[in-house]
Amino acid sequence: MSELSEIGKRIAIIRKDKGLTQKQLIQQIGNTQAYLSAIELGKLKPSLRYLMVFLEKIDVSPTWLFLNRGPRYLKKKGAK
């Protein structure tokens, strides 16, 4: 399986883990539902800007998103 489809699958995992629909997620990070759907299905390569916004807004670990290693989410400052 390609890295592209794996990243898309991990984006879908995070979205579902957060209890978000595609529409709700795009309201938080921008773009269109068709764009997100194509990424999740591995049909489209996400832009670097899109990935950066996703990582920041959803607090996802870049290591987990790109390499599937470590925890899924970043720890917030002050979190125990």
What can you see in these coordinates?
The chain is mainly alpha-helical and 80 residues long. The protein has a single domain (3-67), classed as 434 Repressor (Amino-terminal Domain) (Orthogonal Bundle), CATH 1.10.260.40. Helices cover 60% and strands 0% of the residues. It has 5 helices and no strands. It has helices at residues 3-17, 22-29, 33-40, 48-58, 62-67. The longest helix has 15 residues, at 3-17. The termini are far apart.
The tally of strands reads: 0
* Poorly predicted spans: none
Q: Strand content of the residues, in percent?
A: under 5%
Computed CA radius of gyration, to the nearest angstrom: 12 Å
Please count the helical segments: 5
Based on Cα principal axes, name the global outline. Answer: globular
Label the structural class.
mainly alpha
CATH fold label: 434 Repressor (Amino-terminal Domain)
CATH architecture: Orthogonal Bundle
- Helix percentage range: 55-70%
Kindly report how far apart the N and C termini lie. 36 Å
Report the top-level CATH class: Mainly Alpha
Give the topology, please.
Layout: H1 3-17, H2 22-29, H3 33-40, H4 48-58, H5 62-67
List keywords for this structure.
80 residues, 0% strand, 434 Repressor (Amino-terminal Domain), globular, mainly alpha
Describe the structure concisely.
By secondary structure, the protein is mostly helical. The protein is built from five helices and no strands. Helix content is 60%, strand content 0%.
